[in-house]
From TrEMBL:
Stated role: This protein catalyzes the committed step to the synthesis of the acidic phospholipids.
Keywords: Cell membrane, Lipid biosynthesis, Lipid metabolism, Membrane, Phospholipid biosynthesis, Phospholipid metabolism, Transferase, Transmembrane, Transmembrane helix
Biological classification of the source: Bacteria, Bacillati, Bacillota, Bacilli, Lactobacillales
Protein name: CDP-diacylglycerol--glycerol-3-phosphate 3-phosphatidyltransferase
Biological source species: Streptococcus intermedius B196
Record EC number: 2.7.8.5
Pathway in which this enzyme or protein is active: Phospholipid metabolism; phosphatidylglycerol biosynthesis; phosphatidylglycerol from CDP-diacylglycerol: step 1/2; Lipid metabolism
Subcellular localization(s) per the UniProt record: Cell membrane
Length: 179
């Protein structure tokens, strides 16, 4: 495989791991299955870091990667949070806020590209949001409930703050909305 294709292959691997992750959690609710699911989720999360790192290092950023990488992240995290609700390991209202923010920021990114070709890069609060979301999921699946819950609420705070920050920075798009 050419090195140009490795970041995109990692993104595709992350997408392919999502139904496997869901299947493992659906097959049983034993601690062993939760740990196995946590390992799958951790591997998928590592591909998130690795694909972006390699694409930038090798200067092989592609349109597919720009589209698929953030989509894969959202699909992975949203799937995990939905499964955690089903297992009574995460409050539905917290997950609803997280999913609503993800959809709103995705819509904002599309609007920015459509109106001026601007790409909304992830700022530090958004990166902290992603990091804390992923680690909260892993720790909750490992039944390190206390740490998982703390990280979940930190993720919620950064989810709200980063969403606000992105919309505040793009407020000019909506200046004529309420005239």
């Amino acid at each position: 495989m050419k090195k140009e294709n490795i970041p995109n292959a990692l993104t595709l691997l992350r997408i392919a791991l999502i139904p496997i992750f869901i299947l493992v959690l659906s097959l049983g609710h034993s601690i062993r299955m939760h740990v196995f699911a946590a390992v799958i989720f951790a591997v998928a999360s590592i591909t998130d870091y690795l694909d972006g790192y390699l694409a930038r290092k090798w200067n092989v950023v592609t349109n597919f990667g720009k589209f698929a990488d953030p989509m894969a992240d959202k699909l992975l995290v949203m799937s995990a949070f939905i499964m955690l609700i089903e297992m009574n390991m995460a409050p539905a209202w917290v997950v609803a806020v997280i999913i609503c923010r993800e959809l709103a920021v995705t819509g904002l990114r599309l609007l920015l590209v459509e109106t001026g070709g601007t790409v909304l890069a992830a700022a530090m609060p958004g990166k902290i949001k992603t990091f804390t979301q992923m680690f909260s999921i892993i720790f909750l699946l490992l039944h390190w409930t206390w740490l998982g819950q703390i990280l979940l609420y930190i993720a919620l705070i950064f989810t709200i703050y980063s969403g606000y920050d992105y919309f505040k920075g793009s407020a000019y798009l909506f200046k004529d909305t309420f005239r």
